[in-house]
Amino acid sequence: MIDNPFLKRLSRTLSESPGTPIRLDGLAGEESAVARMINEQIMKARKCERIAGGSLGVLESEAAFYERIIRVISAMIRMSTLGKKERDLDTLCRDIVNIFSKELDFDNCSIMLKDEEGNKLVLIAGSGKGDKYKRGKAWKTGTTLEAGVGVAGTAFVTGRPIFVADVSTDDKYLEMDNDVRVTSVLAVPIKAEDEIIGVINFSHPLYNEGYYDHMENLMVLLSGFVGQVITLAKLYNSLSHWNDALKEEVDKKTTELMRKNRQLRKIALIDPLTGIFNRRFFFKRLEEEFLRSERYEVQFSLLFIDIDNLKPINDTYGHMVGDRVIKTLAKMLKQIGRQGDMACRLGGDEFGYVLLEADVEGAYNFALRLQEQFVRHHFKGLKNNPTISVGVANTKHAKFKDHKDLYRGADSALYAAKLIKNAVRIYSNNMNHKNHNKFQLPLID
Fold this sequence. Notes:
Layout: H1 5-16, H2 29-80, H3 89-103, E1 108-114, E2 120-128, E3 144-146, H4 150-158, E4 162-164, E5 184-192, E6 195-204, H5 215-269, H6 279-296, E7 300-307, H7 310-317, H8 319-336, E8 342-347, E9 350-356, H9 360-376, E10 388-394, H10 403-420, E11 424-426
Parallel strand pairs: 10-11
Antiparallel strand pairs: 1-2, 1-6, 2-3, 4-5, 5-6, 7-9, 7-10, 8-9
Helix pairs in contact: 2-3, 2-5, 3-5, 7-8, 8-9
């Protein structure tokens, strides 16, 4: 047991009451001096403890603030991808509040957007602990609030955020028909450039719970970003709808253009009286087939067909009857012709027919069948049936320099046939086709 007063007091300071200064009364001079020195160190230690405690509090506060900033930035990063694809506004707002619910400390969050007239706010989406904003008995999406009414309506009209720590003591708060318990609420306007398009509501069922220093500034920053995302989504949707409308219009115009091109092609390449190819197309195709026959050494035959004595028919019965005779011959050419061959009207009563991969014998038999069918046809109103003369030129049966030379050969054979009428003549190199027919139709280059 210690009897010395100084030692007793020192022992109590070190064990029972650490940090408590030693009482100096009743101590001798040397003991008193030592006690003062100990008390001085105790006071210094207390001062350091207070400083350290304050610094730790600051560090903890800053760490919490930076953590909240990181969470806000994380929410913004997740939101930045929402406006980059087409989606309706309701879905976009639901995605945003779901992000807020996961990233931020609020118990409940909802987004209200102004209607088309700008006089009301419409609840678009909400989310919170337990998902209390589901459709049903809970707060229904589509619920409206007059602009200027309630906390959200006031924030919308004033354009400034409003925080209410206890809604039971604030006249601005308007309780709505929902199952969400609200005690404290923060309403922040959503701005898109200079226009206020809605309000974000953050609420908590407890008094002043979940709110911290600088929170309002962070939420204003966040709501501004929400406004940009919504504006971007609206623009994307508008462009998408515009593109769809443009595509529909382009498809419509393309279909119309194709139809008109077919009409133009028909006008440019089809003979209006007979419906078969005209002279212009004939010479283009004749040149192609001649080059192909030379390249691949495949023969073909060219037939020139002329209606005998059509002029007397026109003079006696009229041109309408003569046109009927012309159309009958064109129809027969299409009926007995083969797929891939080409029939055309060169002009007047003269026709051309390209018989692909046909030798002289095949072309001759084709011409006979055509003559036989034509002469057997009954032309109403005519006393005597007309006949046809045919001239044939084959790419292997005679030598031709080019398609024009082939044309002249077929024309020479036709001239020889017409001297007899109702005849078929085949061109050979022994025929002289120079200047034999002053009525020969000109070539088309």
